[in-house]
Amino acid sequence: MATELSAFVTNLTLFVLAAFVGYEIITKIPTNLHTPLMSGANAISGITLLGSVVVAGAGENTLATALGFLAVVMATINVVGGYLVSHFMLDQFRGGGN
Amino acid sequence: MAGVLAQYLPPAALQLAYLIAGILFIQGLRDMTHPRTATRGNQISAAGMFLAVVVTALWFDILSPLILGAGLLVGGGIGVWLAVTVETTEMPQLVGLFNGFGGGASALVAGAELIDVLAVGDSLTIGLTATAAIAGIIGSVTFWGSLVAAGKLHGLVGDSPVSTNVGHAIKVLFLGAAVVAGLVLVIQPDALGNAPMASWVPSYWVLVAAASILGIFLVVPIGGADMPVVIALLNSYSGLAAATTGFVLGNTALIIAGTLVGASGLILTVIMCESMNRSLTNVLFGGLGGDDGDS
């Protein structure tokens, strides 16, 4: 119980510090970068793929594996598609802007 | 029994790889706020994701590598296909769709982890059920809210901005139902000890169902022109859902990256509102109760 609680506090520390970092890095941003940044951040939120991989691979229970498989598919779409679309968006700005 | 990497490396190596991925995400996001460095930033962030996924897949014991490989191939294929074939004008709704998938995955992972923990005979702790409940609610709201938002931008969902008291009452009702189901989930294992699966699994899926309806009713009354802001907010939610799933699994990469997106996504949402001279409350709840002060 004690180790569990201290692990929770360690995780909470990461949460609070990451929240401040996330708040601080978005300062002045040109309007035409709003959508690419949103898309890029969206790809990062596909980090849940790590959890999907662990759960899908655990294989202790058929239902859990099935849910994990579905989660892997959805999260991979989010990650791969998200980074690609952000890249294409930024490509267009470069072509059109200059 | 553990994965290939875990047999040769000390446990700290996994945490170190996640730290490096976290640094790449932060640097990538920061670079994406400047026109000159934006493309590089996106690539740095993608490199961090690649590192995190590969290390995770090789670290943990994967009993069903075929299933995992199939999932990655199918998801990757669909992702590439959608990104390559999309029309430029349709990119915003595609981002919304991707975002929904991420949130939905978080909700599924939290549910699957609850099942897995009971399947190996461990008892559920309050910490596990509480964080799973939060991940379930935020993830489901994100999934269905994003689908509606993407559908509106794509012209598949009717676009008639309405703000009624009945609509607000429905939202409160289903939020309440999701929270009650979450409380049942949290209290039950403590009261019954190692409760049989049938006694708690339904509460998690009731929670997911209620939060799904909530997600739909949150976005349906908002006008199509405000959808980019809504998708930005839902993007922040999917980050939070991932972070909460990180608490469920004890995975630091999920906590760091998810929180990063949760916080930066929220700031970006507010900035996008300001550039339209609107307040976030005004966008989310329409004229009703939407004073122009900040929320």
UniProtKB/TrEMBL annotation, chain A:
Name of protein: proton-translocating NAD(P)(+) transhydrogenase
EC numbers, comma separated: 7.1.1.1
Membrane topology, from the record: Multi-pass membrane protein
Main localization, broad class: membrane
Catalysed reactions, semicolon-separated: NAD(+) + NADPH + H(+)(in) = NADH + NADP(+) + H(+)(out)
Keywords: Cell inner membrane, Cell membrane, Membrane, NAD, NADP, Translocase, Transmembrane, Transmembrane helix
Pfam families per UniProt: PNTB_4TM
Top-level taxonomy: Archaea, Methanobacteriati, Methanobacteriota, Stenosarchaea group, Halobacteria
Domain of life: Archaea
Species whose genome carries this gene: Halorientalis regularis
